[in-house]
Amino acid sequence: MALRKKPTKKYSATFLDFAKPLFERMGIEPNSQEGQSLLKTCWTVWNAVVFADVGGQPQYLEKIRDPESVHPATRVIVDWLVERKRTRFKTTNWLVGDCSLRQVRGDWRLRIEARAEPTPAEPRLR
Length: 126
Hints:
- Helix content is about 50%, strand content about 15%.
- A hairpin with a 2-residue loop joins strand 1 and strand 2 (about 105-115).
- The chain has a two-stranded antiparallel ribbon.
- The N and C termini lie far apart (about 35 Å).
- The chain contains four helices and two strands.
- It is of the alpha+beta class.
- The radius of gyration is 15 Å and the shape is globular.
């Protein structure tokens, strides 16, 4: 079994590059309740795209994009994040297990638990 090469960039730095522009655009501080909620949205979208594009399991992405169950403003954010993940981070396919974001003396600090890429879904026999 071949060992995978360690990524050249830390997982936390990669995910922060993905999420930080949204925080800045919305003017939300990571230490706030809104910041924690936005971070969960970023992490949910990241994982849903990885499951859809790598794992062959689009149901999670479909669920968070469903116009019947998602507020239109949230849908705009989700769509922006999906596009960002697919264009700027398309080859970065590990999953986010848990993370927390805070700002300390003006610096952004992210603690992240990265997990392995999902394996493609097995076709189900009927």
